[in-house]
Amino acid sequence: MAHIQTESEWQEEMSAKIVEFVRHELYMELRYLKLALSQLQLQSDPDLRAFATDGAYLYVAPEWLIGIFEKNAQYLGRAYLHTVLHCIFSHLWIGGNRDRKTWHLACDIAVEYTIDQMQAECTKRILSWTRKQMYDRLKEQKQGISAAVIYRMIENEELEQKILLQKEFYTDDHCYWPKKEDGQAKQEQAVRNQNQWNKIARQTKMEQEMRGGETTDGEDLFLAQAAAEKSRRSYKDFLQRFSVLREEIGVDPEEFDLNYYTYGLKLYGNMPLMEPLESREVKKIREFVIAIDTSYSTSGTLVEQFLKETFSILTQKNSFFAQSKIRVIQCDNQIRSDVELKSERDIAALMQEFTFAGGGSTDFRPVFSYINDLIERGELKNLGGLLYFTDGRGVYPKIRPEYQTAFLFLEDYDNAAVPPWAIRLKLEPEEFAGMP
User: Which residue range or ranges hold the VWA-like domain (predicted)?
Assistant: First the structure.
């Protein structure tokens, strides 16, 4: 007996066709987004009244989708593009410690501004007064447009103004965005989703650049945001990767039985005998140095929060050695102090001695010379990393050190001045806000 299609099955079938139609319409005008537009897999959620995503699936209520398609098909194209751009710009994964509602609003404004600047026929809409006012404010920004910049703009807005902006820019549901309280399995999946979208963002950027010819203001804005947001990741995620402790499967020279190996060659000619490979733990970081540029005019509270977050991450179980050593060096054009942190209490004591001169330039080289001297004297036996907290204005060393080095910036910096061997990360102050 042939299966009789139910109403819900029909709705899901129609939903798939509508989404495919929407993707095609967008692709016809925005061909460089082909890979991104086809990435999300359709998943039904009857409780939704907008698109939603977690970076892997596009969640949608079939009945709602069909109803909107009948009334305003063009709106769906814009809404779908909105959700995809959140993924390309990594908005789902770089919120950090920011206020969740304000961050979501900032992301919506950033995406809507990008779409309106693209001026694609399939996504055009008339600008409301609220939208026009917001866009005028954005155009005055000297830092470029990104969700992080917009967050700082609206963070202290009155509640009524935020509600007005939320009504204006709300487009999709963020209920599936990763949360801090998610379990380990969800967090690991979120990391995989983010990595996948980082690849897509890179490929999309290449597709756009390969097209050649002149780009529109909207396309330039898209490329700038894709590049900026891809380089922004939560400090916690960055530091956990920077200080990774992993186990590699390989031959351990101290355990490998050479006699057993050569006996096999002698006995069988070309068949060595080998015991199962021993696993060897690769200890990437045992000692960690944090250099704070005191010529940089910044908030002492912010530095204290930064140190607390760093100490907390590096001393978590399974992320660092039980006997870890974390040193904090104060420096400008010379070494001012060198203190080992053994507990969070040490941070408070250290901060009482900090003096931020501000306004000056610095010389990064003395820190590297000092660390090299510590290594030669045997005081640093297994240094795996240096974190340099600075504004970036100063003299960099020309020779690459033997240990990995990351320069951490709180504001825009001259990328060309930073040595190619250095890891660089632009921090967002909001990541450390609200910490005890």
Answer: 289-427
Tell me how far apart the alpha carbons of residues 419 and 364 are, in angstroms, rounded to a whole number.
Answer: 12
**Phi and psi for 340 in degrees, rounded to 5?**
-95, 130
C-alpha torsion 57→62→64→66, nearest 10 = 120
* Strands 57-60 and 52-53, bridge-based pairing: antiparallel
Burial of 291 (0-12, 13-18, 19+ CB in 10 A): buried
d(CA 97, CA 427) in angstroms, rounded, equals: 12
Alpha carbon distance 345, 347 (integer Å): 5
Query: Which residues lie across from 388 on neighbouring strands?
Result: 291, 407
Which DSSP category does 141 fall into?
Answer: -
Task: Give per-residue pLDDT as tens, 345-366.
Answer: 787 777 777 766 555 567 899 9
pLDDT of residue 231: 52
Scanning the structure block, which residue is given the tokens 């509602």?
Answer: 101
Cα 397 to Cα 366: distance, rounded to the nearest angstrom = 9
User: In 3D, which of 118, 131, 133, 135 has the Cα closest to residue 166?
Assistant: 131
Could you list the beta-strand ranges (E) of 78-138: none
